[in-house]
Design brief:
By secondary structure, the protein is of the alpha/beta class. It is about 45% helix and about 20% strand. It folds into 2 domains: about 110 residues, Rossmann fold, CATH 3.40.50; about 150 residues, Response regulator (Rossmann fold). A 6-stranded parallel sheet has the order 2-1-3-4-5-11, with helices on both faces. It has a 4-stranded parallel sheet with strand order 7-6-8-9, sandwiched between helices. A 3-stranded mixed sheet has the order 10-12-13. The protein is elongated, with a radius of gyration of 29 Å.
């Protein structure tokens, strides 16, 4: 129910009561009241959106989440993200788990039957399944790092790659003397992220040296040159989530050994690297990420049309630190200070 308190009506809604009404003519009184009511409703139509007048109280367009039917620990991660989506949406979303094979026609029919106009696709398999719906249903993607080549420009993508600006802020708070950051990246994977990083670095007075490498050999040479020439007081190395340049069986161990021997600062976009010896990383707050995805989906619904593609880095983050590495670099982190971090290595 909508209750509208109306003061004086505008001039065009004022109805002059006929003389017969003033003399007590009942039929004329009813006619006059009916005319006044019609004019009042016409005036309210200008004040209240049609969607509000037509929709029942509490109605809301449903949203679906498509996610991989996968085992632990990933199932729990996706479940936590969906909790955040439910929370922001105000009610549970339609959940659809997809396996390795699925029929996109059946999926599309199921969603149409429930009045779904926007889906949130989690993980690469969730996004792959959702792509079969493109053209009929809007897609918001989350739980992925990069931007798959086959994804069209109409998909809104929320990456798991931490926002470079947040990484640089944390770096400056822990190592204020750092003035220059080197990153080696494969442009096929991280060109979009490096563009954001360049702007973030300028705003924070950091010189960003971004070197492109399309193969492991080129990346290794760049790392070796960095350790040979770096000023460990003012230079730092950033490891992005990049399968070409941060290969974990040979390149990462070399980086960790060289950084330990030389006392060089290395930080990463991957929380797993902190457990292996990198100074710090940022990683997702999954419930908050879910809320962000829900806001994006609701905004897409309100816009009622596909946006230009925007890839958004992760901004709802937690912090992981390796206190052993910190001590080695001369950075003392007390027990009390450790409580400000969400994840501390080595694990006690």
């Amino acid at each position: 129910m909508i209750i509208v308190a109306v003061g004086e009506l505008p001039p065009q809604t004022r109805t002059r009561m006929p003389a017969t009404t003033r003399r007590g003519d009942s039929a004329s009184l009813h006619q006059a009241l009916a005319a006044a009511s019609a004019l009042l409703l016409a005036w309210l139509a200008f004040l209240i959106p049609a969607s509000v007048l037509a929709a029942p109280s509490g109605s809301r367009q449903p949203i679906a989440v498509i996610y991989p039917d996968i085992g632990e620990p990933y199932r729990s991660v996706f479940g936590t993200i969906i909790e955040g989506i439910d929370e922001k949406n105000g009610r549970p979303v339609v959940r659809i788990a997809v396996g390795a094979t699925h029929d996109p026609r059946v999926l599309a029919g199921e969603l149409r039957g429930q009045g779904i106009r926007v889906v949130i696709a989690l993980g690469r398999n969730g996004l792959k399944a959702a792509m079969g719906l493109e053209g009929e249903i809007g897609i918001v993607a989350g739980g992925i790092v990069g931007v798959p080549e086959e994804v069209s420009a109409s998909v809104s993508i929320h990456s798991l790659a931490p926002d470079p600006g947040l990484l640089f802020d944390r770096l400056k708070s822990m190592m204020p003397a750092v003035r220059r950051v080197l990153v080696v990246h494969d442009p096929r994977q991280n060109d979009w992220l490096i563009r954001i990083a360049r702007e973030a670095a300028v705003k924070r007075g950091i010189e960003l040296i971004a070197l492109e490498a399309s193969d492991l050999r080129s990346a290794t040479l760049y790392y070796q040159e960095f350790f040979a020439q770096a000023d460990v007081k003012t230079d730092a190395l950033w490891l992005p989530q990049d399968t070409t340049t941060v290969e974990e069986s040979t390149v990462l161990p070399m980086i960790l050994q060289e950084s330990w021997n030389r006392g060089a600062v290395v930080f990463s976009s991957s929380v797993a690297h902190v457990g292996r010896g990198v100074l710090f990383s940022l990683y997702p707050d999954n419930v908050a990420l879910g809320r962000t995805l829900a806001v994006s989906a609701l905004t897409r619904l309100a816009a009622n049309g596909p946006p230009a593609r925007v890839v958004t880095p992760l901004q709802t983050v937690r912090i992981a630190v390796n206190v052993r590495t910190a001590r080695h670099l001369g950075l003392a982190i007390s027990r009390t200070e450790q409580q400000s971090f969400d994840l501390v290595f080595p694990r006690q």
